[in-house]
Amino acid sequence: MNVQELSQALANTFSSQLQSNVVVQNDVFGEVTIEVSPKDALSVFETLRDEAALKFEQLIDVCGVDYSEYGSVEWATNEASSTGFSRGVEPATGARLRFGDELDVSATDRPRFAAVYHLMSVTHNHRLRVRVYCESEAVPVVPSVIELWPAANWFEREAFDLFGIIFEGHPDLRRILTDYGFVGHPFRKDFPLIGHVEMKYDEEQKRVIYQPVTIEPRVLVPRVIRDDGRFDSDVSVDMSAETATADAMTSESKDA
């Protein structure tokens, strides 16, 4: 079954339960992504696992996504000056926010949070991506699939820890990667990359203490899309020749 046939089989099986059914096909591989609502998710997942024509027995991964800055960037990514890179000034990304700053989330009209599931059919040797958007941004909730795939246990805990997505029905939904007293969810776009607190060893108290972070938020790595042809094959050959000539001249000067 190719990706087009899989997409058609999903459409025939679920009819109106699918909010989206998208096929991406290129010369190397193809993939199918479907979207379902939280209220239909468990029914769809159970059919995906048990239906003979589908048989997605294996859950490969569950991850969270925060779409609050989707399509938004503070860099001029299509050009760079000859004297250096432009610098992002306005705090358009979470990396430049301080505690209490607000993030502009108007870049997209889609729901902010989603849980994304990657499934595999060992029987039919095909894969599927399922996206379930959380209906509420304030309290993002999707149903847990741990009863269908026990492997979801740690995956769902990770998405809860990093994104704050609540998996309703999970028997032990608690943090799995961050510290016990950690505040916030570090993979959310409005969470500063420098964090809110830092810890150090206090000589007077003879113990490790927490204090407000003292690092100044800034962006060091520019994101620039190169369109000047420097990566064309003929240019690469010329640059290699220039490099070889420069190396030879350096070697001669050292010998002298």
Explain how this protein is built.
The chain is α/β, with parallel strands linked by helices and 256 residues long. 23% of the residues lie in helices and 22% in strands. It contains 4 helices and 9 strands; from the N terminus they run H-E-E-H-E-E-E-E-H-E-E-E-H. The strands form 3 sheets. The protein has a 5-stranded mixed beta sheet with strand order 1-2-5-4-3. Strands 6-7 form a two-stranded parallel ribbon. The protein has a two-stranded antiparallel sheet with strand order 8-9. The longest helix has 23 residues.
What's this, in brief?
This protein is α/β, with parallel strands linked by helices and 256 residues long.
What is the chain-wise order of helices and strands?
HEEHEEEEHEEEH
Low-confidence stretches: none
The 3D shape can be described as elongated
Q: What proportion of the residues form beta strands (DSSP E)?
A: 15-25%
C-alpha-based Rg, rounded: 25 Å
* Helix count, DSSP H or I runs of 4 or more residues: 4
Arithmetic mean of pLDDT: 80
Number of strands: 9
The order of strands across the largest sheet is 1-2-5-4-3
Structural class by helix and strand composition = alpha/beta
Query: What distance separates the N and C termini?
Result: 68 Å
Largest sheet, described in full? 5 strands, mixed
Helix content: 10-25%
